[in-house]
Each structure stands twice: as C-alpha cells, then as structure tokens.
C-alpha cells in the first residue's frame, strides 16, 4: 500500500504517518526528517537544505526529488510506504507518478489531514524538539515529564527554527501556494481522502484506518 499524507505543516500528518507505518508494517518516509538528519550530520545536502528550511521555504525540487526516489527504491519499500511531507509541489507529484508508472505501479491513497490555519499557528508555537535524539513534544498536548528537558535523553528541548512564529507564517503561505493544489491533483485521480485533523489524535487515526481498511 502506497500512501501520501497531505496537510498543512503542523496538521499532525507526521504523527498519523508514524501510526499508519506501525499498523500496516510499512516504512514511514519523511523528507523533512531526511533533511534534518543531513543537517545534523553536516552533509552538503544538509547545508543546502537548511538555508531554505530556516526561512520556511521549500527545498528546491531537484534536491528533494532525488533523495525521495533513492529512498523509495530501497528493498524495505517493496510492499509500500507512507510518505509524509512529499510531494509538496505539483512537479514533485508528477515525478513520483512517473517513477511509479515505470514500474507499473501507482499511489493508492492521498490522505488529507485538514486543519484551519488558526489551529496550526497555536499548535506550532507549542512544539518542542530534542535536537540530540529527534524526540518531539508539545507544551500543551504532549508535555515532557520535566519542563524543557527531553524524556528520552535528558537534553534541553528547543523551539525549532522552522517552528518560530514568523517562519510558521511563511510556511503556511508556501503551503497554500505550492502544496494545496495537490488536493485537486489527487482528487482528479480519484484517490483523495479527507479527514478532520482538529479532533483528538486517536480519532483522526480511527478515521484514517476506516479509509485504508
Ligand atoms: P517537515 O518536517 O515535513 O515539516 O519539513 C520541514 C522542512 O523541510 C519544510 O519546511 C521544507 O523546507 C523542507 N521539506 C520537507 N519536505 C519537502 C519537500 N517535499 N519539498 C521541499 N521541501 C521540503
């Protein structure tokens, strides 16, 4: 099963993608996570991506498409995967379609997690991340046991540069301009499924599993 998660940054698609991956035994592939791992490792790709990410802009398609196609060509993807944060532009979606078409395959579901902008802004301001181990928290919804400290590794939690209010605003603008058109793109293909992302996490997941079967 090949699934694409759509939704604004902060809509909770990453959380849902992880749950889907666990339930259906398929890899969770997040282009954002791949970029962040590269930034942490100090690679050339990481240095290039960071310049865009810190401003709330999309990393150019040439860089993004290559890492995604390399990743889905790996052995663990042969029975499917859930993509979180890719595609984010129509050209990215077309490249993925073409690559799948070449192997006689296609995307099965595009799940849109719908959350209005006001909710997104409130959610993202509360996000905290551990840059050491990658764990994520929320001051309101998933607080760490001790304020500002990672439960997993004990390091200091931070508000990621790309979750800062001015960057969030840019990311939402970018989302509406560049990513939202994908909703129509997958609607036309007949594989778009919408879920309300404002309800509790478990209810969002129940709605998704009712769709995926
Ligand atoms: P995410 O963790 O999915 O919210 O991604 C964080 C940031 O990584 C985004 O704001 C973009 O700058 C970059 N990024 C992740 N996925 C993509 C993509 N498919 N295309 C372009 N940029 C991306």
Précis, in short:
The protein is of the alpha/beta class and 213 residues long. The chain has 9 helices and 7 strands; from the N terminus they run βαβαααβαβαββααβα.
What layout of secondary structure does this protein have?
Elements: E1 2-6, H1 13-24, E2 28-30, H2 31-40, H3 44-53, H4 61-72, E3 81-84, H5 90-102, E4 109-114, H6 117-125, E5 127-129, E6 136-138, H7 165-179, H8 181-189, E7 192-196, H9 201-212
Parallel strand pairs: 1-3, 1-4, 2-3, 4-7
Antiparallel strand pairs: 5-6
Bound molecules: adenosine monophosphate.
Give an overview in words.
The protein is of the alpha/beta class and 213 residues long. The protein is 48% helix and 14% strand. It is built from nine helices and seven strands, in the order βαβαααβαβαββααβα. A five-stranded parallel β-sheet has the order 2-3-1-4-7, sandwiched between helices. Strands 5-6 form a two-stranded antiparallel ribbon. Strand 5 and strand 6 (136-138) form a beta hairpin. The relative contact order is 0.19. The structure holds adenosine monophosphate (AMP).
